[in-house]
Automatic annotation (TrEMBL):
InterPro entries with a match to the protein in the record: FA_desaturase_dom (IPR005804), Fatty_acid_desaturase (IPR012171)
Pfam families linked to this entry: FA_desaturase
Gene Ontology cellular-component terms listed: membrane
GO molecular function: oxidoreductase activity, acting on paired donors, with oxidation of a pair of donors resulting in the reduction of molecular oxygen to two molecules of water
Provenance organism: Nocardiopsis ansamitocini
One GO process term, biological-process aspect: lipid biosynthetic process
Protein's recorded name: Delta fatty acid desaturase
Residue span, Fatty acid desaturase domain: 72-330
Length: 378
């Protein structure tokens, strides 16, 4: 069992006792009062209007350049440019799914399907369901689909129980991580199509129509303008870089942080904070990562508008310091290094030939060094 996580459980239990004896409401309720009092839960319509106009102009400009350049190898640059635009559109779909832009579900879903399904070929309904389950139980080995051992393993226990593809790749998964991200864009398309066959998916026919309209328009315009070889290269570059960029946005947030099992009973605040990592870097990193570098604040307040996350960060960090809750924050390069070291470490049981059908403990993050500008590191 992870001694560090056991210590966190004891701290959570002590905090619960303190709350019941000396404070009205939970720790999160108090934090929510402070954040709401600072006006940070208000919508930011003008910010999102400007962001949609900018990303929309880049999208139209990219495809206009594609048509004007014609059958040329310079289209590789357009493919790379559109990969960046597609990722930024994916981030807008993310914000729509969290109702950061609209308060109600209907306009969020309508625009989300236009941006996600029609714009970039990512099923909005499928992704929202998957992402909602992730937010409810981040880094939970049984409940978070983002740490399911489908291709890679995320904990010692998963490594020892692995079979098939995860066991084949897990041996050297840290070295394979970024190459595998080149397939993430195509994986999103495949998963979106597979989700159409689930009866539980809402508005399936609308999702399907918009999704296949994207595929038809995307492939059609490539074959109309480019030779077959250039079209294939364009598709590979565009989708490969799209997957890498998208993976690089989400990978620093939780990879290498503690994974949880059914044995772990943490309150909402600790469950979100202890499994998340913030990434420093200023306004440029904010734009590149779509504000998700404030992952702790985003997980605590998922409907908070992106520009408010930066302002909420010192409030959350200082409050965690009051509670003695570790608050993890590091630079962008180090966040990837921590994730890769963690992947290599949890792959050790596979390299050593260990197998175990029994449930195992959680995976530990890399050594909790002093990479934090807040309170303690996690």
């Amino acid at each position: 069992m992870d001694e560090r996580l056991s210590g966190l459980r004891r701290a959570a239990s002590a905090a619960g006792t303190r709350d019941r004896s000396g404070r009205s409401g939970s720790d999160f309720a108090e934090l929510s009062r402070r954040v709401n009092g600072a006006g940070l839960l208000k919508r930011r319509p003008w910010y999102y209007t400007a962001r949609f106009i900018l990303v929309g102009a880049l999208f139209v400009g990219g495809w206009t350049a594609f048509v004007l350049i014609g059958d040329s190898w310079w289209q590789i640059l357009v493919a790379a440019f559109l990969a960046v635009v597609f990722t930024q559109m994916g981030l807008l779909a993310h914000d729509l799914a969290h109702r950061q832009i609209f308060r109600t579900r209907r306009p969020s879903a309508i625009l989300g399907r236009v941006v996600g399904n029609l714009g970039i070929g990512m099923g909005y309904g499928w992704w929202m369901d998957k992402h909602t389950r992730h937010h409810a139980n981040p880094n939970h080995e049984d409940l978070d689909p983002d740490v399911a051992p489908d291709a890679l393993v995320w904990s010692d226990g998963q490594a020892q129980r692995s079979r098939g593809v995860p066991r084949l790749l897990g041996r050297w998964q840290a070295y394979l991580f970024f190459p595998l991200l080149t397939l993430e864009g195509m994986n999103l398309h495949v998963a979106s199509v597979r989700a159409l066959f689930r009866p539980s998916l809402k508005q399936r026919w609308i999702e399907a129509a918009l999704l296949f309209a994207h595929f038809a328009l995307y492939i059609g315009v490539l074959l109309l303008v480019l030779s077959p070889l250039k079209a294939l290269v364009f598709l590979a570059v565009n989708q490969g870089l799209f997957g890498i960029y998208l993976g690089c946005v989400f990978a620093p947030n939780h990879k290498g942080m503690p994974t949880l099992t059914r044995e772990d009973e943490l309150d909402f605040l600790r469950k979100q904070v202890l499994t998340s990592r913030n990434v420093r870097g200023g306004r440029f990193v904010d734009a590149v990562l779509g504000g998700l570098n404030y992952q702790i604040e985003h997980h605590l307040f998922p409907s908070m508008a992106t520009p408010n996350l930066r302002r909420a960060q010192p409030i959350v960090r200082d409050y965690c310091a009051e509670l003695g809750v570790p608050y993890q924050q590091t630079g962008m390069i180090d966040s990837y290094a921590q994730a890769l070291r963690h992947l290599h470490r949890v792959g050790a049981p596979i390299r050593n030939g260990l197998r175990s059908p029994a449930p195992s403990g959680t995976g530990r993050p890399d050594s909790p060094g002093s990479k934090d500008t807040g309170t303690k590191t996690a």
